[in-house]
Amino acid sequence: MHTSESTSDASSTAFTASAASAAFSTVIRTASHEQHVEAETSTFMSDLLGGRLGVEAYARYTEQLWFVYDALEAGAESLAADPVAGPFIQPELFRRAALERDLAHLRGADWRSGVSALPATLAYADRVRECAERWPAGYIAHHYTRYLGDLSGGQIIRDKAEKTWGFERKGDGVRFYVFEGIGNPAAFKRGYRELLDAVRADDLEKQRIVAECKRAFALNTGVFVALGDEFRLSA
Questions:
Q1: Cβ atoms of residues 127 and 229 within 8 Å
Q2: Distances in Å between the alpha carbon of 219 and those of 126, 151, 164, 192, 213?
Q3: What's the rounded Cα separation, in Å, for the pair 90 and 146?
């Protein structure tokens, strides 16, 4: 017990020192960098972007995203007035409706009857929902990892999908990656980071947010691993 407490104290002290010398947006980005890279370079995502998987894999991935964003946005309205998470609830970010358009294009008008969530996806969505309902600060971690990723690396996926499978530029099939309400993504991301820097949380709570951010990336990677397994087995 003594060793565990000492480790925890040391970790807390290190975080406090880091937070004192850097903006929280920098701390959270730096602390989760390893998990971020792991997610981006997963075998499934590498194969998808490398053209080694067909449009079915892209459609299956889009299905999984719908379950995650359904959890993320179903709780958004109830968090709009929350002093911690409220500033992050911005409708121009919402992706669920765009995903539904994409799925209608990829799977047909009755897509809801055929989509299914992988166990890893259910675990991810359940954690997002739990944070939305019980821990607004933790919800921010999931909000950050998803939406800023969509605005950044997600654009690489959109470009690849358009070129590889012939989707109309920014049209049905890739609308998830098109933020029509955000005219200047770079400026929006700067504003978002300012919200992170101003988040109403003490150092201990910020440390918990960083840990949840790492967990979010790990859950996302788990979905990639499950998708990779599914398509390797079906090959």
A1: no
A2: 11, 19, 27, 23, 10
A3: 13
CB 62 within 8 A of CB 99: yes
Q: What sign results for the dihedral spanned by CA atoms 140, 142, 145, 149?
A: negative
d(CA 54, CA 52): 7
Q: Provide the H-helix boundaries in 41-153.
A: 43-49, 55-74, 76-79, 96-107, 119-134, 136-151
Rounded-to-integer distance, Cα 75 and Cα 139, Å: 9
Per-residue pLDDT of the chain (235 residues; tens, 9 = 90+): 444 444 444 444 445 544 455 899 999 989 877 877 777 778 898 999 898 999 999 999 999 999 999 999 998 999 999 999 999 999 999 999 999 999 999 999 999 999 999 999 999 999 999 999 999 999 999 999 999 989 988 888 999 999 999 999 889 999 999 999 999 999 999 999 999 999 999 999 999 999 999 999 999 999 999 999 999 866 5
Determine which helix (DSSP H) or strand (DSSP E) holds 4, and give its type and residue range.
Answer: helix 2-21
**Token pair for residue 61?**
């991935």
Phi/psi at 224 (5° precision): -60, -40
Q: How far is it, in rounded angstroms, from Cα 177 to Cα 35?
A: 22
DSSP 110: T
**C-alpha to C-alpha distance for 97 and 102, rounded to whole angstroms:** 9
Question: What is the value of pTM for the model shown?
Answer: 0.88
Token output for 153 = 């690396």
Distance CA 127, CA 175 (A): 25
Please, are residues 226 and 118 in contact by the beta-carbon 8 Å criterion? Answer: yes
